[in-house]
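Suppose a colleague, Dr. K., hands you the sequence of a protein chain of 408 amino acids and asks what its three-dimensional shape might be. Before reaching for any lab equipment, you can write down a predicted structure in C-alpha cell form. Begin with the sequence itself:
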Amino acid sequence: MTAEMTKPAWLNNELIEKAFKKSEQDDSIKVIKISTKPGSEKGDNYSSDVYRVNVEFTRLKLSNIIHEKRSLIIKISHTESPIFKEMINEIDVVNLEIKMLMSTLVEMQKFLGDTKLCGKCLYGQDKPPAIIIEDLAVSGYRLADRKVGLDYQHSLFAIKNLAKFHASSVAAVEQDPSLKSFYGKGVFFKPCNSILMKQFLNGAMKSFATAVESWPELGPKYGNKLKKLSDNFYDLFAERTALNESEFNVINHGDCWVNNMMFHYDDNNKVDNQIFVDFQIPVYKSPAIDLNYFFNSSLSDETLSQRDKLLKEYFKVLTMTMKRIGCKTSPPTADELNRMMSKYEIYGLFAACVCLPIMALDKEHAKPIDDMMLDDGTIDDKGVTNPVFLKRVTKRLQKWDTMGLLDV
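The predicted structure, expressed as C-alpha cells, is then:
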C-alpha cells in the first residue's frame, strides 16, 4: 500500500487549507492539491506517523491570483497504540508539543534573536492528534546517522544550541512561571498511572540485564544488579530524577537524541547549523537530564571520550547567553553543573541501556513498540544482543557500577 492509500481520511485539502489560513492569516488561500508520502524511514520514529505533504495552493495578491507550492511535515500521534494512547492521556503529549511549538519556543526564539531552535509550526490539533510543521529538508536540513553516532563537530553544534535552548527557556520561565508546572512531568514522574509504559520500560531493562548476564566482560554480577533495577525501574528513576526547586532548572527538550535534531551543511558537506525537532515530552528539571541523555544516546564512542570538553562548551555558551538575554536567574557554576551531571547520571544509564539498543536497531528489526512486548515481561529487542552495542556499553556500566548507580 502507498502512503496516499493509508493516510487518514481527515488528512485532506480542507485541513491543510485551514492550517495555511491560520498560519499566514490569509483567508484568500485555496488549496488545490496535496500529495503525501512517508516522512520518515522505519525505525526513525516510534511515537508518530510522519508524512511529507506537497501542497499546491493559490492566494490573492493585489487582486491577482498567485500559485504557490509548499512542502510540509505532518505528525500524527499513534492513538491506536495502547502504550502511546496511555502516554497521550497521562502526559498529554500532543498538547505539550503544540504549546511548545506554537507558544513557548516562539518566545524563547524572541529572546535569542537570530538563533533558530526549531521549524515553524503552522497548526496543531489534539483531536485527531496532528501537528503541521514546515519541511526543514527544503532548507537543506537532514538527519545524521543514528547508528554511527555523532562526531565531534556535529556534537559541538548540538551542544551549543542546547545551551541556547536551555538559557532561553530560563528567560521564558521568568516571564511566565506557570511553565514550570505545565512542563512538570516528562517521562519519569510520580504518581504515574500508565501501566503499560511502566511495564515496557521495566521489561526493556530486564531484557538488557539478561543479555548482560551472558556477556563475558560483565557476566552475572552486572546481570543480577540490572535485574534488581528492572523490578522497580520506572519508580526508581522517577524518584532519582524528581524536580529539585533549589537547583538550577530549565525546560529540557526531554528526548534530546540524534534523531530529534537535524543538521545543515555547507557546499563542502561540512556541518554549519543544527536545529531541534519533536517536542512531545519537554520537562522542567535540571539541564543534566538533556545532557546525560544526549551524551549516552547520540555520540560515537570517540566523541563520548571528549564529553568533558563538550560540557565546558555547553557551560560557556549557557552562561554567555543567559547574560546576553538578561536572565535574572544566576547560571550554575562549573562545579554545580558537574555535581548535577553526576547526580542525574542515572538518566544516561536509562539512555544507554533502554533507549540506545532500540534506537540503533537495523531497519529490518525495527517494529512498533507494542509488538516488542512479550508475555514474560521482557521485550523482543534485538539491539541488546548485538555484540557491537554490548561492547559500547561495557565501559559505561563498569563506570556506573563504581559510582553506585547499579545498586538499588
